[in-house]
Amino acid sequence: MSNRAVLEVIALDAQDAIAAQSGGADRLELVTDMAADGLTPSRETFGRVRAAVDIPLRVMLRLTDGFAAGDVDALVRAALGMRAEGADEFVLGFLDADGNPDLVTVERVVAEIEGCRWTFHRAIDRAADRDALRKRLAELPGLDAYLTAGAVEGVDAGLPVLVAEAARRGTPGYEPQILVGGGLRLDHLPELRAAGIDAFHIGGAARPGGWAEPVSAEAVRTWRRTLDA
Predict the structure, then answer these.
(1) Confidence of residue 36 (pLDDT cuts 50, 70, 90)
(2) Which of the four pLDDT bands, split at 50, 70 and 90, describes residue 209?
(3) Which of 217, 157, 168, 154 is nearest to 197 (CA)?
(4) Less Cβ around it within 10 Å: N or C end of the chain?
(5) Does residue 201 surpass a pLDDT of 90?
(6) What Pfam families does this protein's entry cite (predicted)?
(7) Backbone φ, ψ for residue 112 (5° rounding)
(8) Which has the closest alpha carbon to 77: 37, 108, 56?
(9) Which residues, other chains included, contact 12 with Cβ-Cβ below 8 Å and sequence gap of 6+?
(10) Once rounded to an integer, what is the mean pLDDT over residues 115-119?
(11) Cα-Cα-Cα-Cα dihedral of 216, 199, 55, 60, to 10°?
(12) pTM to 2 decimal places
């Protein structure tokens, strides 16, 4: 069995996607509007990206900044539209005003993407109780990853939480893969890999020129080489 770590890269368009795949990315997270921390892209963008690359592609389902669901009917329409275009992997996650998982919304969206795999994104880092959130979502079909930095402030602050959660992998609520992202740097990798974490998510780290510039294949290649070393 391969022990190759998963490297997921944020893509905004087909150019990003091609560069990320060329650099060795295993999967893409497709979003738009990083000023709002990533929203649902257009169906047209999804179609262009899907035609450009052949690696797995997870589509963000999020219509407004923050972690409240907003217009749930619009969210469901977005999910159905992406399914109609051929999307079969997604990223989503919503909290209520008290920091608990918004199960009504999550369950409704998951019902519309039945049969698809999906990531619960960094809403977990703002949850009132991470452990309770994991256990409440444990029975939802298709959930196979949590995108998390371990803390709102990012991986620097969240490393102890990530290591502790990795040690619980396979116990109830901790079966999904830990996908580390949010201020992730190359120097974090040794400790995370030693803890058994095997999935990593980069956005700005794939763009040395900042978000105004496209993904750099060479930057992605550096991450790939480091993970494979």
Answers:
(1) confident
(2) very high
(3) 168
(4) N
(5) yes
(6) CutC (PF03932)
(7) -80, -20
(8) 108
(9) 30, 31, 32, 34, 41, 45
(10) 97
(11) -90
(12) 0.96
